[in-house]
Amino acid sequence: MEPLLQWLAAVFSVLAEALSFDETLAQGWPQTPPTTAAIGIAVLVTLSMAAGQCGILFLNQVPAGRLWSAVGVGFAVIIALRAVSALVMWGFATLATGTIMRPSVILVTMVVALAPQVFAVITMTPYLGLLFGRILEGWEFVVTFALITALYAMPGWQGFLVVGAAWLVLQLGSRLLAEPSRAIGTRLWTLATGQPTLITAADLLAGTPLVPINQPTAGRSALDGHGNRS
Question: What sign results for the dihedral spanned by CA atoms 87, 91, 96, 97?
Answer without folding.
Answer: positive
